Amino acid sequence: MPPCQNNLINLKLNMMIVFDQVTKKYGNGTVALEDVSFEVEPGEFVVIEGRSGAGKTTLQKLMLKETACDSGTIHLDGDDISKISARNLPLLRRKVGVVFQDFKLLSDKTVAENILIALDIIGISGEVAEQRLVELLKLTGLTNMRELFPSQLSGGELQRVAIARALAPEPKVLFADEPTGNLDDKTASSIIELLQTINNQGTTTLVATHDHHFLKNQNRRTLYFELGKLVKDSKKKDQSLCPK
Description:
Blueprint: H1 3-14, E1 17-25, E2 31-40, E3 45-49, H2 56-63, E4 71-76, E5 79-80, H3 89-94, E6 96-99, H4 111-121, H5 126-140, H6 155-167, E7 173-177, H7 185-200, E8 204-209, E9 221-226, E10 229-233
Parallel strand pairs: 3-8, 3-9, 6-7, 7-8
Antiparallel strand pairs: 1-2, 1-4, 4-5, 9-10
Helix pairs in contact: 4-5, 4-6, 5-6
């Protein structure tokens, strides 16, 4: 096997996320992603920046195998997700916790219940679930709000519940979609601090956003997307493993 092929195999095994020449088109001809390649190391914090339609949400759907790419390969935690069977799909999705832009909380459930549902789905209940819940409430600053309903919470508090729920299964990757989209500057800063704390604990963290205001002074790796193309990687080096 050529040395460059060995390098590619090792890269895909050692990185948390690898997109290799990924293209995704939708039925109406829209190109969501075009020849996108990047790698994310375990424990890395990466910002994915781009306006609406840039391809950020498609990245999330591809990682969860909610849709398939038309060409290229995607590896998550060493696994080629195209080869993961429907039976093992829940195991893949447990590795990626998603914080949705619109929260997707159940309005008739309390803060605690919204988080516990994520644990119940994976078969965790009773004292083990309660212990995990207490840990998550403490981490996200929601200890005194566990019995409140979403309608009683502020935007920042709702975001914290969404983050706690995404973290419930202890995913290896946290993908936050526009986590500060509708928040004031102070609240947005507190959410970013929370995400950084989570990342410091070892969770690979991806933040998809077009809100440059709170990111411009942050020294974090940023992937810039425009119309489905990765146009810039702020920490990109010459990493060509198999020159054409």
